[in-house]
Amino acid sequence: MTEAQAARGTNPWLALFALLVVGIFNYADRFLVTGLVGPLKETFQVGDGFIGLLMGPAFVLLFVAAGVPIARIADRRSRVKIIALGCVMWSACTVATGLAVSPWQIALARVGVGVGEAAFAAPAYSLLADFFRPERRGLAFAILGLTTYIGQIAGQAGGPAVAAEYGWRTAFWGLGAAGLTFGLILPLIVKDPPRGGRVAPSATIPFRELIATLRAAPSYLLMALAFGLGSLSGVSFGFWGPEVFARAYGVDPVVAKSTFAGYFGIAGLTGMLAFGAVTDRLSKRSMQWPLRLGAIALFAATVCVLAATWAPSLTIAKALAIPSGLMGGGWSIGFLATLAYVLPDRFRATATALFLAATTLLGFFIGPWAAGQISQSLGNDAMSLRIGLSVTIPAGFVAAALAWIAMRRVEADRERLAQAAGDPGSPM
């Protein structure tokens, strides 16, 4: 569908802005825990291992379990209403986090957050794929991707600032209340566009048949594994990096976290927008180019982030933050644009949810948790945390290689998946 057609319901750019706001609440909640590591450890007398549990497994388990069933519904029902309901749920659980009086109550609240946030990503990217044509999706996905870095800045810098004045519980309450409000009004702002494929929304492919179809698409499988390993590399550093700044350089925790969020976050925002524009331009030449660009950027980001982890001074760490953020913010755009290009509309939301489930297990479950466990076993100090991150960050090198291999199968797999969906002529 064209953007003009989509605009008959909701202007595509208004829809994108509304999804951007929802996504900021989504990621601010995730990063708020990393910004409040000190107060949480002090209040509940826990170590890095338990904090890693909050960052990873407590959030991820039901996020992954709920993601695919929710996406199956999104392939048939209103994606906007699903996102709105999810926003209300995770925001309510964010408020509940601020009410917790024991470590396990916080863990339970994080599980609820995971279920709610499972309703965002796959339906949101499916919506954008119907609002924007392939040659415009790179920029649209990049703008939506800004949620990661704006959320990081809000959670890692804004959270500690609020906590310093009003207490850590207030930070959770304020963020949750704002998300609740916006979730309730989202359906008044955005209406679902017509779906891009030729198949009626109710005609979903049987789940077993879908799994078999996706297994026969090597580029999809390789991109999922590569995206997961790349996320493992970047997310573990994104969650634990502020603690490295605080512990290694003797900086006040609030200052360290705002510095980290500012340097890496702003560079990431810039990188994401720049790569979005470049991806759109390169996609006109060949749809192999977005993934090629993503692989190169991921390799470079991994080098820079590993160097930043071991920087001998705060000055050098801040200098390395610029290329780390630029490359780290941009590499995912090529992956997501290629994914939307390869997948037909008939099962785009479900296949995207499966893709994100695999990547979330690697990136958000294993990454932060593994780094935290290694750090706790070695002493809960700056050196132990650097060692933990040095185990997880190099996964980005493997991810870049897998993406490079997947690049050569994109066109063949797109045709195969379109035929499986019964819509070989789809322009989407």
Concise account of the structure shown:
By secondary structure, the chain is an all-alpha fold. Helix content is 82%, strand content 0%. It has helices at 3-6, 12-35, 37-44, 48-55, 57-74, 79-99, 103-117, 121-131, 134-166, 168-189, 207-215, 218-248, 253-283, 289-309, 314-342, 348-378, 382-392, 395-406, 410-420.
What does this molecule look like?
The chain is an all-alpha fold and 428 residues long. The protein has a single domain (10-420), classed as Growth Hormone, Chain: A. The chain is 82% helix and 0% strand. The chain has 19 helices and no strands. The chain has helices spanning 3-6, 12-35, 37-44, 48-55, 57-74, 79-99, 103-117, 121-131, 134-166, 168-189, 207-215, 218-248, 253-283, 289-309, 314-342, 348-378, 382-392, 395-406, 410-420. It is globular, with a radius of gyration of 20 Å. The termini are close together.
